[in-house]
Amino acid sequence: QVQLVESGGGLVQAGGSLRLSCAASGRAFSGYAMGWFRQAPGKEREFAAAISWSGGTTYYTDSVKGRFTISRDTAKNTVYLQMNSLKPEDAAVYYCAAGRLYAGRPSRNPPMYDYWGQGTQVTVSS
Asked: Which of 5, 51, 100, 122 matches a 20 to 30 Å C-alpha distance to 25?
């Protein structure tokens, strides 16, 4: 079975950094996008970043560009989200997800992702 397990969440002050990890197992992820989504209290789950597993091409939502970096280590089957210059509005539960690429790029929409982790809480204090 496919399993995605997030880790690395926690409490950080505004301006600080966190590195999230997503350990993936259960299948080959070639042809897949590995994405990070986040859901803040009272809001819908939203796309944050994604990377194509095979090619390593990255995609970001505008609000995190220049601050977050998504990467993957194919040998470790692990996806990372390095989050710098964190803002209070970044606080959310962060979910790792895997979905097939369409036309060579990932979707921003959660229904397009087949597999999800349990989420890890990121809290940013001001």
From this structure: 122
Instruction: Supply 78's token pair.
Output: 């692990």
Contact predicate 48/108, CB 8 Å: no
pLDDT for 34 equals: 97
Torsion angle defined by CA atoms of residues 81, 121, 16 and 70, in that order, rounded to the nearest 10 degrees: 10
Contact at 8 Å (CB) between 80 and 28?
no
How much of the chain exceeds pLDDT 90, in percent? 96
Beta strands in the chain (DSSP E): 3-7, 10-13, 18-25, 32-39, 46-52, 58-60, 68-73, 78-83, 92-100, 115-116, 120-125
Instruction: Find the mean pLDDT for residues 64-86.
Output: 97
**Which tokens belong to 14?**
């505004």
Q: Which two tokens stand for residue 109?
A: 């929409």
Q: With 90 as the cut, is the pLDDT of residue 110 above it?
A: yes
